[in-house]
Amino acid sequence: MGDRANVVFKEIRYDKQVVSPVVYFHWQGSDVLRLLNKTKIQMEDRTYADDVCARFIQRASNELTDLIYSIAVNNSDDLLTNPYPWATEDNGVYIVDMPDWKIRHIINMYNDDTGKHDRYKFTDYEYVGFITGWKVCNEFIQTEDEVKQLQGLAQEINELDNEQSNRNLCL
Predict the structure, then answer these.
(1) How far, in Å, CA of 28 to CA of 62, rounded?
(2) How far is residue 157's CA from residue 140's CA, in Å, rounded to a whole number?
(3) Total-model pTM
């Protein structure tokens, strides 16, 4: 129901990760790459995630028709570490990495064999120019179980890093 997608912008600024609010589209999900291209042209060399997010929302709002519920802005502390619940919308979730505008698109897919939405398609895009926009540079599919295994490994690595940081503080 709808043409839904979520979009988030991220960057490293002064050695700290900055993440924009999540932009939710109810009716413009299939237009995300086109809207991102227009936003990139408008922003030129400005690449702060929060500024780009604001212009992206403005660009999308300017193109709205008279539909009642179309755009929402949400906060998410865990989208980058757990994007999978956000990927269940019709057009999934787009994670835009600033300043180079690389995009990872994650979408939850229906698996005919199991009769469930238990696979994720990952598509990576890189920017090639304002006329062409983005091109696909990588594409792969993982099952829900594979994703859970990788999430578990990432959590273990984070815990080990935290333990090591705590030990270094005591030295």
Answers:
(1) 12
(2) 23
(3) 0.82
